[in-house]
Each structure stands twice: as structure tokens, then as C-alpha cells.
């Protein structure tokens, strides 16, 4: 068995962000829960620049709701910071355009990863982008 570290947790966050339906998302969450990995996912769409704060907020709320983090300053900060970092990776393609897609969040012990998978563009002329970031948090977070 491969040890669960930051690389595996990041891969799980990406898989959640890539899930195409709520049913697939639920199956993945159940599979990972059996391994002791907590996960959350949330859809998002809108104009990129005006949406950054709302995307971060939705990620934090989803992570707390699904038990990925506790209601602590450190836990919220880890998810907010990782989400912001993931968004900055896709920012050059996104400024002034609309985005739509999913945020995947995964945690195992002190590893927390956030992946964003968005279609970016106008009408049917979409570009695709993935952003990924990791934070280390204590078990109490």
C-alpha cells in the first residue's frame, strides 16, 4: 500500500474537481472516506475577478460542512489560502472572462489540498485550466 502523503491527497482533490456528476462525486467521497480521507467539492460559475472572494468562501464553507476542517482559524485559513493559491494559477487565463467548474478539497491528517477545474471563456469558446495548492495543518485544525 502506498503511504498517504501530499501527492496522493492532491491527486484526490483533482479527481473530485474533475468529477462530472453529483453521483460520481458521492462515490468518490465514499471510496476515500473508507481510507480515512475527508473530502468536499463545490461547483462554481461566474465572472472571474468579481468571484474570487465568493469562490474562497464557498470552498471554506464546503470544507467545514463536510468535516474536512474544523471551525478554527487555522483550518479556515489553510483552505482559504490554498484556494487563493490555486486561483492565482489560473488567473492569467481568466481575467475578464467567465469561469465555470468545480473545486475539489481533500484532507488526510495534516495534508490539505484544493484543486480548481474551470472552463474559462465566452459562449462555446472555452479554455480549460486547473489550479492546485497544498497546505499543512495540525490535527486540531
From TrEMBL:
Taxonomic placement: Bacteria, Bacillati, Bacillota, Clostridia, Eubacteriales
What is its quaternary makeup? Homohexamer.
The name this protein carries in UniProt is: Hut operon positive regulatory protein
Q: Which domain of life is it from?
A: Bacteria
Q: Which UniProt keywords apply?
A: Activator, RNA-binding, Transcription, Transcription regulation
Look up and give the organism this protein is from: Dehalobacterium formicoaceticum
UniProt function note? Antiterminator that binds to cis-acting regulatory sequences on the mRNA in the presence of histidine, thereby suppressing transcription termination and activating the hut operon for histidine utilization.
Q: Which family does it belong to?
A: Belongs to the HutP family.
Q: Is Transcription a UniProt keyword of this protein? A: yes
Amino acid at each position: 500500500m502506498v503511504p498517504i502523503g501530499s501527492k496522493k491527497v492532491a491527486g484526490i482533490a483533482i479527481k473530485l474537481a474533475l468529477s462530472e456528476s453529483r453521483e460520481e462525486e458521492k462515490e468518490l467521497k465514499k471510496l476515500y472516506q473508507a481510507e480515512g480521507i475527508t473530502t468536499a467539492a463545490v461547483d462554481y460559475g461566474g465572472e472571474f475577478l468579481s468571484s474570487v472572494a465568493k469562490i474562497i468562501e464557498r470552498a471554506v464553507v464546503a470544507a467545514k460542512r463536510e468535516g474536512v476542517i474544523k471551525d478554527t482559524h487555522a483550518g479556515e485559513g489553510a483552505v482559504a489560502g490554498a484556494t487563493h493559491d490555486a486561483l492565482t494559477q489560473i488567473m492569467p487565463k481568466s481575467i475578464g472572462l467567465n469561469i465555470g467548474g468545480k473545486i475539489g478539497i481533500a484532507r488526510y491528517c495534516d495534508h490539505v489540498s484544493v484543486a480548481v477545474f474551470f472552463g474559462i471563456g465566452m459562449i462555446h469558446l472555452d479554455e480549460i485550466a486547473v489550479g492546485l495548492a497544498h497546505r499543512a495543518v495540525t490535527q486540531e485544525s
